[in-house]
Amino acid sequence: MSGFGMQPGIILLREGTDTSQGKAQLISNINACQAVADAVRTTLGPGGMDKLVFDGRNVTISNDGATIMKLLEIAHPAAKTLVDISMSQDTEVGDGTTSVVLLAGEMLKQLKSFVEEGVHPQVIIRNVREAGQLAVQKVSDLAVPFDLDTEEGADMLLKTASTALNSKLISSHKDLFAPMIVEAARTLHAGGSLEDIDNLVAIKKIPGGDVRQSFLVKGVAFKKTFSYAGFEQMTKQFTNPKVLLLNVELELKSEKENAEVRITDPDQYQSIVDAEWQVIYDKLDACVDCGANIVLSKLPVGDLATQYFADRGLFCAGRVENGDLKRVAKATGAIVQTSTHGFHEGILGTCGFFEERQVGDERFNVFTECPASLTSTIVLRGGTEQFIAESERSVHDALMVVKRSLTSKSVVAGGGAIEMEVAKYLKEYALTIEGKGQLIVAAFAKALEVVPRQLCENSGYDSTDILSALRRKHFHDEDGKWFGVDIIKGGICDTFEAGVWEPSDNKCNSLASAAEAACVILSIDETVINPRSEDPGGANGQMPGQGGGGQKPLSNMMGNAMDTANAQQGGSRSGNLGNGVSYMKGRGGG
Q: What angle do CA 28, 34, 39 make, to 5 degrees?
């Protein structure tokens, strides 16, 4: 018996599965994360450049880290961790999406040498976690609290909004937008609805005009919906109107194609037609009889209803977006009705003034002087669609920053000052511990300097000279803790005095997320990339002995892992995300 006593081959993974493990795999992941950080590095700060991303259909121009990361569609499985922390920062704080990616990438870069020299990843992870916790605690200790009820507190909010807008496309118009944003956020804070800021503060975009023509509506404004003939005759202005909100279709419905009605007398057909018309008239009469002046519905309002309401001096609009309808309900106190039966005074809302006004090429329905002054609408103008889209992202980020400032009620200085002060603290702490931990904590501290360094480089200044001056100031001067990069003059300055303020929650979240992402990457010791199956649940290849010349050996190298992932998505096997965008500098150790 030939082959008697031979051990059978054990197949754990199906054919085509790509696996890699060990030090080479870890270094490969670190290199991929560094390449992701390099993709957004130049967008940081007031001197940051914009990225133009074309996805085959739409063109996006932005320097918002989270937006760029989302549009890049990064294929590397480990590097997607940086996309996740950027999105998390955008959701949680709204700003700092670029800096959190830079911090995580720089931490991995500084720790890479320890991995190459054979330090166990768990030793590195323990010390990185400890350093991250110390850094967050130090930021909390340095944070300057403020009282919202004082003039200084109001000024703090304006400065944080202006700082958030500094690095945006509309930075030259922050004197216009910052007061709008603060007013909208403070209104919500006073009403106890700050957490619902995304739903209660609407941002509307109208192409054309100058950006300085943007304005804030203390109430609700939405674009005029599709209207049938008769809307020209409707009353377009009301003072103290009654508002009725519906989720009802006010349109004459035709019978279904397969409907069958049997009659014995031709007069009976007329009674059926009359009954259909009576149904819609009953609905319209109910709307008029309840005393409403304005009727808004989420569903269509037909031509009959439009003319009916116009004849009776009412204003109506159908197909109103769900978000706009909810904002009107919140502002006016109206209750959305799903039936036209049983209307009473309690379901109607009111506002001080309503009008339909022209804004650029669009007609807008505007509700102002509302009893529940929680809702606000920011109307943005601009020359191009891309500019207005970026303006919307910028205003949203600033809104989230002001929301965080109102929640934390404390700020720290920006411009790299807080990073330099925390780095100084961690370097001093590193000298008090023994062993490998000392070097790892010191490397973590050095990684924090990437923020002031990149701010200098993006603004065209010599980062070596400025960083040396910052280190000297922070280490030797007692009053140097708030010194950061002076973007305007190209030196160093007290950024707290200069009004460059950020919410303390912003920095705490950035440091915690970056440290956690670095730990996640360092804890991966093996990557398995499964081949895409044509038959779900079945293997692509054949088992030995089933024909086809036997099984190909499994690959144990990660060298072509990214090429495989990219090729599966229809790209070339070149290690590139797209033309000119690299996601791996090298394969390190491979």
A: 130
Average pLDDT score over the chain: 81
Which tokens hold the place of 3? 């082959």
CA pair distance 303, 282, nearest whole angstrom: 16
Which residue type sits at 86? Answer: S
With contact defined as beta carbons under 8 Å apart, do 397 and 86 qualify?
Answer: no
Query: Which string of DSSP letters, residue by residue, matches 142-167?
Result: H-EE--TTSHHHHHHHHHHHHHHHHT
Say how far apart CA 366 and CA 315 lie, in whole Å: 12
Q: Strand pairing of 353-359 and 349-350?
A: unpaired
The catalytic residues are 64, 97-98, 397
Residue 558 has pLDDT above 50, yes or no: no
Token digits of residue 382: 């601009």
CA distance 128 to 120: 13
Task: For residue 431, count other CB atoms closer than 10 A to its CB.
Answer: 9
CA–CA gap between residue 415 and residue 495 (Å, rounded):
6
Q: Which helix (H) or strand (E) holds 83?
A: helix 80-92
- 125: Cβ–Cβ under 8 A, 6 or more apart, which residues? 519, 522, 523
Phi, psi of 305 (to 5 degrees): -65, -40
pLDDT tens-digit profile of 358-405?
887 788 889 988 887 788 889 898 878 888 888 888 898 888 888 888
How many Cβ atoms are within 10 Å of 190's Cβ, its own excluded? Answer: 12
The number of helix segments (H) and strand segments (E) in the chain equals 18, 22
Reported pTM: 0.76
Instruction: Compute the radius of gyration of the chain from its Cα atoms.
Output: 31
Tell me which residue has tokens 């605690």. 137
Query: Dihedral angle at the C-alpha atoms of 398, 400, 406, 407, nearest 10 degrees?
Result: -150
Contacts of 177 (CB under 8 A, 6+ apart): 161, 165, 170, 214, 394, 395, 398
**CB distance 236 to 315 below 8 Å:** yes
Q: What is the pLDDT of residues 33-84, one digit of tens each?
A: 989 898 889 998 888 888 898 888 888 888 888 888 888 888 888 888 888 8
Token reading at 163: 């700082």
The whole-angstrom separation of Cα 30 and Cα 116 is 11
Residue 251's nearest CA partner among 324, 184, 318 is: 318
Average pLDDT of span 516-525: 90
Three-class SS state of 59: strand
Distance of alpha carbon 142 from alpha carbon 412, whole angstroms: 7
Torsion of the alpha carbons at 555, 559, 560 and 565, rounded to the nearest 10? 100
Four-point Cα dihedral 458, 459, 460, 463, nearest 10: -70
Return the higher-pLDDT residue of 347 and 10.
Answer: 347
**pLDDT tens, position by position, 14-27:** 665 556 667 888 88
> What CA–CA distance (Å, rounded) separates 564 from 520?
23
CB 131 within 8 A of CB 426: yes
Q: Round to whole Å and give the CA distance between 50 and 62.
A: 5
